[in-house]
Design brief:
By secondary structure, the protein is α/β, with parallel strands linked by helices. It has two domains: about 230 residues, Aldehyde Dehydrogenase, Chain A, domain 1 (3-Layer(aba) Sandwich); about 180 residues, Aldehyde Dehydrogenase, Chain A, domain 2 (3-Layer(aba) Sandwich), CATH 3.40.309.10. The protein contains 15 helices and 18 strands. The protein has a seven-stranded mixed sheet, with helices on both faces. A six-stranded mixed sheet has the order 5-4-3-6-7-17, with helices on both faces. Helix 3 packs antiparallel against helix 6. The protein is globular. It starts with a helix and ends in a 7-residue tail after the last helix. The structure holds nicotinamide-adenine-dinucleotide. Nicotinamide-adenine-dinucleotide binds next to helix 7 and helix 8. Belongs to the aldehyde dehydrogenase family. This is Aldehyde dehydrogenase.
Length: about 450
């Protein structure tokens, strides 16, 4: 029997409708992650030398915080939510009744291979769904431990994991799911959307984009450079919300570049020697892609590559042209282009050149400038005077817009994402106003005031 059938049968038992069942499963998951946290760090290190600090902070502890939030609120979020009634229906009680969609397919990428499986999984399970996970084929060690955890923690048919590459992914996508949650590239996101459309399956698509980071002349240059360098070189730039390119005011550009270099050296030492605090590029294919982006560019810092190690050092490129390969697609590596601007029209020329990004950052002391950027441009989320940290607050839905994605999740948004909210009106029997029944007798002058009853 194929995996979806097993999940169908499991969902039909109604077991997942029981809040105590969901909580017990999440508690087992929590316990297993805590028990195997060191092994998880080792797996990510084996996959692409991800530093232990980054795995603990951005993978295991991030996921544990998400599970904790779901566990704490699941009872409250799953209760019918009362909304006010309208006079026309009086007397009624009106409410939203959340139900799980059913069988969820969750497809994950390689860059945060643990977080991007288990954080959405926690929300899907909390909301009462069954889940089939397809992790990335590029992180086999993390997939192996994820598979062991899932097989140990969840009952058969509740949560399963199917390992494999794009053929497996396509086989799964050819089936009829109740919900598809996909994290990955915009290119594959479009394929997923097409499959989902055939069955009108609702989706969340967590995609990528070219995220601008704007630094104006009033910004605190030292601190800005430090926070930008941190967010960019975390996971060796293989972060969907990392700054893709910097637009910095000409007046402060050289000071900004010097501060960036200083912070890179303080973080990683001599970049000619691969640092243990910097992850490697995931595979040869991506390494070669990034290496080729350095060709014919004005490399003003770094640019060191070591083939056997898939190592690309933190690198700064000065003034790439909009037409150069570096400025076509999301870079997704430790290469940071810096572009000087003089006027706000120049900022617009760059930002509007690309599809709506997943994130945008603005560094400025001027409130009017901060507000202008937030108001003028459309993007998934972002930060003022920092980068990347918008992902950490569970009260902020995380997701893109346009080409960077559809929908959002984390905390309550995850629970809502994986729930269908039925709108229900419960009518009392003790009164039945006869006005709505034929033969219609209500005169026009009263009917034309009906809007006041809604
Ligand atoms: P990817 O799109 O290549 O792969 C993602 C998943 O889709 C993998 O499990 C893969 O096996 C599967 N897949 C690949 N090709 C497929 C196809 N033709 N049909 C069906 N399934 C297919 O992405 P990736 O390289 O693993 O991850 C990097 C991308 O993910 C970047 O673009 C990054 O911005 C994005 N990303 C987004 C977020 C977010 O939260 N928005 C988070 C992390 C990564």
């Amino acid at each position: 029997m194929d995996v979806l059938n097993v999940h169908h049968n499991f969902f039909a038992t109604q077991k997942t409708k029981d809040i105590a069942f969901r909580k017990a499963a999440l508690r087992r998951l929590q316990k297993e992650i805590v028990a195997r946290e060191d092994e998880i760090c080792d797996a990510l290190y084996a996959d692409f030398k991800k530093p232990r600090f980054e795995t603990l902070a951005a993978e295991t502890q991030f996921v544990l915080a998400e599970i904790k939030t779901q566990l704490k609120n699941i009872g409250y979020w799953s209760r019918p939510e009362r909304v006010s009634s309208i006079l026309a229906n009086w007397p009624t009680a009106d409410f939203l009744f959340p139900e799980p969609y059913g069988n969820v397919l969750l497809i994950a990428p390689w860059n945060y291979p643990f977080q991007l499986v288990f954080a959405p999984l926690a929300g899907a399970v909390a909301a009462g769904n069954t889940v089939v996970v397809k992790p990335s084929e590029l992180t086999p060690n993390t997939s192996k431990i994820s598979s062991e955890i899932i097989n140990k923690v969840f009952e058969e048919g509740h949560v399963s994991i199917v390992e494999g590459g794009l053929e497996v992914s396509q086989q799964l996508l050819n089936q009829k799911w109740d919900y598809i949650f996909f994290t990955g590239s915009t290119k594959v996101g479009k394929i997923v959307y097409e499959h989902a459309a055939k069955n009108l399956t609702p989706v969340t698509l967590e995609l990528g984009g070219k995220n601008p980071c704007i630094v104006d002349a009033t910004a605190n240059i030292g601190l800005s450079a430090k926070r930008i360098a941190w967010g960019k070189f975390l996971n060796a730039g293989q972060t969907c919300i990392a700054s893709d390119y910097i637009l910095v005011h000409h007046k402060v550009k050289s000071r900004f570049i010097e501060a960036l270099k200083k912070h890179i050296e303080a973080s990683f030492g001599d970049v000619a020697v691969p640092s243990e605090h910097l992850a490697r590029i995931i595979n040869q294919k991506n390494y070669q892609r990034l290496k080729s982006l350095l060709e014919d560019q004005n490399v003003i810092y770094g640019g060191i590559t070591i083939d056997q190690e898939n190592y690309i050092s933190p690198t700064i490129i000065d003034e790439p042209t909009l037409e150069s390969p570096l400025m076509q697609d999301e870079i997704f590596g430790p290469i940071l282009p810096i572009i000087g601007y003089e006027t706000e029209e120049e900022i617009e020329r760059y930002v509007s050149h690309y599809e709506k990004p997943l994130a945008t950052y603005v560094f400025s002391r001027k409130k009017s400038f901060q507000k202008k950027i937030l108001t003028k441009y459309s993007f998934g989320g972002g930060a003022i005077n920092d980068t990347v940290i918008q992902i950490t607050n569970k009260k902020l839905p995380f997701g893109g817009v346009g080409a960077s994605g559809v929908g959002g999740y984390h905390g309550k948004s995850s629970f809502d994402t994986f729930s269908n909210k039925k709108g229900i009106i419960k009518k009392a029997n003790w009164l039945d106003v006869p006005l709505r029944y034929p033969p219609y007798k209500v005169p026009d002058f009263i009917l034309k005031r009906f809007k006041h009853l809604f």
